[in-house]
Specification:
about 110 residues; DNA-binding; transcription; about 65% helix
């Protein structure tokens, strides 16, 4: 059942943090792995769980796969709201926004 997959995906703190980062911009698995104390394959497994739950989608562009939130998903809408008021989520969103701004200035 899809709802069970969503709750299983949200049960993991790293996956919730990945959602917080993706709430501000799309990122590659490598971009996300640089923010965590875990290997890139471990981050990829978390992304796979989030994707199978319908919370994120991916798009291959050249040699990179970019991940983004599925904004039409009600859970992501509610999660985005929670990250705005959550003391743990706010810093992650701020960091992701700063990275997006720096990326735009660099291009």
């Amino acid at each position: 059942m899809a709802v069970d997959r969503i709750f299983d995906a949200l049960a993991s703190r790293p996956r919730r943090e990945i959602l917080a980062y993706l709430s501000a911009q799309e990122l590659t698995a490598g971009d996300l792995a640089s923010r965590f104390d875990m290997s890139a394959p471990a981050v990829s497994r978390h992304l796979s769980v989030l994707e199978s739950a319908g919370l994120v989608s991916s798009e291959r562009r050249g040699q990179y796969v970019y991940y983004q939130l599925n904004s039409h998903n009600l859970v992501n809408t509610l999660t985005g709201f929670a990250f705005e008021i959550c003391p743990n989520g706010r810093p992650l969103k701020r960091e992701s926004r700063k990275m997006r701004a720096a990326k735009k200035q660099g291009t």
